[in-house]
Amino acid sequence: MKPVEVTDSNFENEVLKSETPVLVDFWAEWCGPCKMIAPVVEEIASEYDGKLKVAKLDVDSNPQSAGKFGVRSIPTLLVFKDGQVVDQIIGAVPKRHLVEKVEKHIIIEK
C-alpha cells in the first residue's frame, strides 16, 4: 500500500475524518531529509496497511494544512487519531523510532 497524497482540499476527509489513525508526512520536493525518510514512510504504509493510514502532504503546494498544524520544519510527521494530533516526529529519524511512535496509537493483534 502506497501513502495517500493529501492536499488542503481533501485533508479533512482523508485525515481528520479517518476511521483509522493517520500518519501524515509533511514534506517538500527540495528537502533532503524528506527524501531520506520517504522509503521508511512507504515501508510503514505497507507494514501497517489496514491498521494505519499513511499520507503525504507537500507543504509547498498545501501551505494551509501545514500552517494550521504549526509545521515549521520538515520533514514533520504527525499522528492523527479521531481528528486530533496525538504525536509528532520532527526530522529524519530511524525507522524504529517512527514505529515506536505509531504503535502507541494503533491496535496490534498478537
State Rg: 13 Å
Structural class estimated from helices and strands: alpha/beta
β-sheet strand percentage: 25-35%
CATH class: Alpha Beta
Summarize the helices and strands and which ones pair or pack.
Layout: E1 4-6, H1 11-16, E2 22-27, H2 32-47, E3 53-58, H3 63-68, E4 76-81, E5 84-90, H4 95-103
Parallel strand pairs: 1-3, 2-3
Antiparallel strand pairs: 2-4, 4-5
Describe the structure.
With 110 residues, this protein is of the alpha/beta class. It has one domain: Glutaredoxin (3-Layer(aba) Sandwich), CATH 3.40.30.10. The chain contains four helices and five strands; from the N terminus they run E-H-E-H-E-H-E-E-H. The protein has helices spanning 11-16, 32-47, 63-68, 95-103; strands spanning 4-6, 22-27, 53-58, 76-81, 84-90. Strands 1-3-2-4-5 form a five-stranded mixed beta sheet. A hairpin with a 2-residue loop joins strand 4 and strand 5 (84-90).
What's the short story on this structure?
By secondary structure, the protein is of the alpha/beta class. It has one domain (4-103): Glutaredoxin. It is built from 4 helices and 5 strands, in the order βαβαβαββα.
Features:
Glutaredoxin; single chain; alpha/beta; 110 residues; five-stranded mixed sheet
